[in-house]
């Protein structure tokens, strides 16, 4: 048996962050500092120079300014790697006092079992701005029904947030008793959980020392003290109730613990509210300070302070610096200040004030409100950024700030809000990716199935921008593999790299440079730098192949559209990119379609494997054809592998009768309308979209979601392939189907869930049957070619939809049996299929080349 060895998937990099410089701020030639902390021009108070013509190119100037908020895919990867590095350092206890993140163990050792019972009082401080919440929670165990907690919110006066600590805790004790006074139930022997969302050194479940205040709090005499004790003292001073403070938790921990069990265990808690942070379950043996070698412990990352040691430097804009200078904790919580809700409004305000002072917005006039700290809140930004918000609403919000709102201002302000929000969402995604990589690494698991509990107002009020990624920030993945083919078998090491969407759809040069960068990175990590290795390139797009190392790209498919590639020889483009990178030698020997690679890899073990099939993001097949039937190639004995590119079947209208209006909508919205008709009815990239269009239609008929269209359902690509596979799994109760949909932001009833399930089944069943029909045609063709009564043949298959969907593969097989009864077909699922196959093609090519030389 070939031996397959896998390396971890996530690139680990050193703690050094080298980010390409951001655009120079457009005002750095000026020197006077205005009330926003940013330079501004002299002239009429509140207005830029009188008579200054309103610039006609204001949208260009706004976009230019917003460039600074752009974070590239590479930068995100660097953040992910650097954060991961500092998490690991802190876990190992090697962090310096000015460490980037803190990794605080929380004394929570297991996630809830669902059997917990009893009445509890919860006091929440610090999660949501200047408010304090008291809750009464009744846990009913597994048998009982869920009770909605009762709660009351109290606003903390600003002087209390900045005054003596004792005053703050007295205020909390007072709120507690006011809340309890109003409750009808008995209040003997109360147990209290204290949710305290600031960085703390915990030394027990009920012992926790505040390290430093964050997020607008700065009460004296609390830092360095046990906050549980301070609360106990205050409750005693107040005297009305006898309450036992049993535990103190960070909000991230509370979020993780409160998550309803879903498909996987919930072992990550993520909060984006006033501040931002995450916690996750770490193996206790990895936490140096604990000196424990069994079990797991929940660790609060405290990623808000990431970057306090300067690694974020090149990414920080002038606005970030101004905001930091004016904050209560300059120099601290730099990452949080780019993401947390307390700061997003402030960032928008600083940008708007700057643009007004530059004469770009609001007729060149500011207003006292625009120049005062805190006048734009998270709620406002969320509302203005919402693309469905009417222009009138944005207009009104700006007028409330006393601004002089011109015709083009509304749209430009929306851009500003979007830029600030998008940056925050992307940074947060990169940070979450670091936590997930850490989990994957510490569990030593190739694939991590885990639920992330999310909480906080930034999520709740703004779910659209915060769609969560898996490990690695977005884009399409590609893999670099090192395959050693030896007498003992095949040995594979690989690493996944991502191709961000902007690269997949940018320039061809950029795309190929990125690919070469990743190959070189992989080579370095494998200690193979400087060696000229033979390279096989699995390139899964339609190509006209003129030789083993020559393939003209006919057209892009599957969401790629990089310029200047169609009609070009892909091997040349790759060689050119290698040439642009100095001191790298790579010898491109073969270019192979994924179907061919898959067939080859299975053929290594089963010589009857003469067909390759892919059902993943795209779908396609290849098979061994008689050379005499191939007009384009001379010779009439022997066989040749033909890449069918069956995805394009139907582009001439031959699938017309089968196509529904939903297929037409999906096609219209794709980047290649009219192309790949068969693929769009079968493969993973499109099935979720078909489902979504059907659900939209059913909603418009009033039979689903009570007829209410939600923004969420209007979002393209919310249903990934994985989703279809999950939802149709037989082991799921309808309740779990509901949970999955709710996770996607689609609240629904059980009837709705049943209907969604049926829609998914109909769509995936059609896909499997169409795919089966395609396979039947191929094997029948082989049988006829050879004039056989009966053909026995094997098919190598790869692709996530085929492999992960609970019913897809059996339905394909059943369809083939029905349509091609004279063929006995075995389906072989390939492991690392196409990559190994490409290596085999390359190995054969090298052997032939050597023989030719001899
Ligand atoms: C701040 C706190 C942290 C908390 C987060 C989210 O970063 O330091 O403890 O979890 O805000 O509220
Ligand atoms: C698309 C490509 C094809 C590839 C298939 C599966 O259909 O055009 O070359 O084999 O996807 O990845």
TrEMBL record:
Family: Belongs to the hexokinase family.
GO cellular component, one term: mitochondrial outer membrane
GO biological process, one term: intracellular glucose homeostasis
One Pfam family it belongs to: Hexokinase_2
Lineage, broadest ranks: Eukaryota, Metazoa, Chordata, Craniata, Vertebrata
Protein name in the entry: hexokinase
Keyword Mitochondrion: no
Span list, region Disordered: 1-24
Main location: mitochondrion
Compartments, record wording: Mitochondrion outer membrane
Compositional bias segments (type: Basic and acidic residues): 1-11
Residue ranges annotated for the Hexokinase N-terminal domain, each copy included: 64-259, 474-604
Its membrane topology: Peripheral membrane protein
Gene3D superfamilies attached to this UniProt entry: 3.30.420.40, 3.40.367.20
Organism expressing this protein natively: Nyctereutes procyonoides (Raccoon dog)
Catalytic activity: D-glucose + ATP = D-glucose 6-phosphate + ADP + H(+); a D-hexose + ATP = a D-hexose 6-phosphate + ADP + H(+); D-fructose + ATP = D-fructose 6-phosphate + ADP + H(+)
InterPro entries hit by this protein: ATPase_NBD, Hexokinase, Hexokinase_BS, Hexokinase_C, Hexokinase_N
Listed pathway(s): Carbohydrate degradation; glycolysis; D-glyceraldehyde 3-phosphate and glycerone phosphate from D-glucose: step 1/4; Carbohydrate metabolism; hexose metabolism
Keywords, sorted A to Z: Allosteric enzyme, ATP-binding, Glycolysis, Kinase, Nucleotide-binding, Transferase
PANTHER family named in the record: HEXOKINASE, HEXOKINASE-3
GO terms assigned for molecular function: ATP binding; D-glucose binding; fructokinase activity; glucokinase activity; mannokinase activity
EC number: 2.7.1.1
Domain of life of the native organism: Eukaryota
Domain Hexokinase C-terminal intervals: 268-464, 611-844
């Amino acid at each position: 048996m070939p031996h397959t060895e896998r390396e971890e998937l996530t690139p680990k990099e050193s703690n050094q962050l080298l980010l390409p410089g951001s655009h120079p701020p457009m005002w750095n030639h000026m020197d006077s500092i205005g009330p926003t902390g940013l330079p501004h021009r002299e002239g009429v108070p509140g207005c830029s120079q009188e008579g200054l013509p309103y610039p006609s190119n204001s949208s260009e100037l706004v976009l230019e300014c917003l460039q600074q908020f752009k974070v590239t895919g590479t930068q995100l990867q660097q953040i992910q790697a650097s954060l991961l590095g500092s998490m690991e350092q802190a876990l190992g206890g090697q962090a310096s006092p000015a460490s980037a993140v803190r990794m605080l163990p929380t004394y929570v050792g297991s996630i809830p079992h669902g059997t917990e019972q009893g009445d509890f009082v919860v006091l929440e401080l610090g999660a949501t701005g200047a408010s304090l919440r008291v809750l009464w929670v009744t846990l009913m165990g597994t048998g009982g029904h869920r009770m909605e907690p009762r709660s009351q919110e109290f606003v903390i006066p600003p002087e209390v947030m900045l005054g003596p600590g004792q005053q703050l805790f007295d205020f909390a004790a007072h709120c507690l008793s006011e809340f309890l006074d109003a409750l009808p139930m008995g209040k003997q022997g109360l147990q209290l959980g204290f949710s305290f969302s600031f960085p703390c050194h915990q030394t027990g479940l009920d012992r926790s020392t505040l390290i430093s205040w964050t997020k607008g709090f700065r009460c004296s005499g609390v830092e360095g003290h046990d906050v549980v004790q301070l609360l106990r003292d205050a409750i005693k001073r107040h005297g009305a109730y006898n309450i036992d403070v049993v535990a103190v938790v960070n909000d991230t921990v509370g979020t993780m613990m409160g998550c309803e069990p879903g498909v996987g265990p919930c072992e990550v808690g993520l909060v984006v509210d006033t501040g931002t942070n995450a916690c996750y379950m770490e193996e206790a043996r990895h936490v140096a300070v604990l000196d424990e070698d069994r079990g797991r412990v929940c660790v609060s990352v405290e990623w808000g302070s990431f970057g306090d040691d300067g690694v974020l430097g090149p990414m920080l804009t002038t606005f970030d610096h101004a905001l930091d200078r004016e904050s209560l904790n300059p120099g601290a919580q730099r990452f949080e200040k780019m993401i947390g809700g307390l700061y997003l409004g402030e960032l928008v305000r600083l940008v708007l004030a700057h643009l007004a002072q530059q004469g770009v917005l609001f007729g060149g006039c500011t207003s006292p409100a625009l120049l005062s700290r805190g006048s734009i809140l998270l709620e406002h930004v969320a509302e203005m950024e919402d693309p469905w918000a009417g222009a009138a609403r944005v207009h009104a919000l700006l007028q409330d700030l006393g601004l002089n709102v011109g015709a083009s201002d509304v749209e430009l302000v929306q851009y500003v809000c979007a830029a600030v929000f998008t940056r925050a969402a992307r940074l947060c995604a990169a940070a979450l990716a670091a936590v997930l990589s850490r989990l994957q690494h510490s569990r030593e698991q190739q694939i991590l199935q885990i639920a992330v509990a999310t909480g906080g107002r930034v999520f709740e009020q703004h779910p659209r921008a915060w769609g969560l990624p898996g490990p690695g920030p977005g884009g399409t993945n590609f893999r670099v593999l090192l395959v050693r083919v030896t007498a003992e078998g095949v040995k594979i090491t690989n690493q996944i790299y991502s191709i961000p969407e902007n690269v997949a759809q940018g320039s061809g040069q950029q795309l190929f440079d990125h690919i070469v960068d990743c190959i070189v990175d992989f080579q370095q990590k494998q200690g193979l730098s400087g060696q000229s290795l033979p390279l096989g390139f699995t390139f899964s797009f339609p190509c006209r192949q003129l030789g083993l190392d020559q393939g003209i790209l006919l057209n892009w498919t599957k969401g790629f559209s990089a310029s200047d590639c169609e009609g070009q020889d892909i091997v040349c483009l790759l060689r050119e990119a290698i040439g642009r990178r100095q001191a790298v030698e790579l010898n491109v020997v073969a270019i192979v379609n994924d179907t061919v690679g898959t067939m080859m890899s299975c053929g290594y073990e089963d010589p009857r494997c003469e067909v390759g099939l892919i059902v993943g993001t795209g779908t396609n097949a290849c098979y061994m054809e008689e050379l005499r039937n191939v007009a384009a190639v001379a010779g009439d004995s022997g066989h040749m592998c033909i890449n069918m590119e069956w995805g394009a079947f139907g582009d001439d209208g031959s699938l017309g009768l089968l196509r529904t209006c939903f297929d037409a909508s999906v096609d219209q919205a794709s980047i290649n309308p009219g192309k790949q008709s068969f693929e769009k009815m079968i493969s993973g990239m499109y099935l979720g979209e078909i489902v979504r269009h059907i659900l939209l239609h059913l909603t418009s008929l009033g039979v689903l979601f009570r007829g209410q269209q939600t923004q969420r359902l209007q979002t393209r690509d919310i249903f990934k392939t994985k989703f279809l596979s999950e939802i149709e799994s037989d082991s799921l109760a309808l309740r779990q189907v509901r949970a999955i949909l709710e996770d996607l932001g689609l609240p629904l009833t059980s009837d709705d869930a049943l209907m969604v399930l049926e829609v998914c089944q109909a769509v995936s069943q059609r896909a499997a049957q169409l795919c089966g029909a395609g396979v039947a045609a191929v094997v029948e063709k082989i049988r006829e070619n050879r004039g056989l009564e009966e053909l026995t043949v094997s098919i190598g298959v790869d692709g996530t939809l085929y492999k992960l969907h609970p019913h897809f593969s059996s339905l394909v097989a059943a369809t083939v049996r029905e349509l091609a009864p004279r063929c006995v077909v075995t389906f072989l699922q390939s492991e690392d299929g196409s990559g190994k196959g490409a290596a085999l093609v390359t190995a054969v090519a090298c052997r032939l080349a050597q023989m030719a030389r001899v």
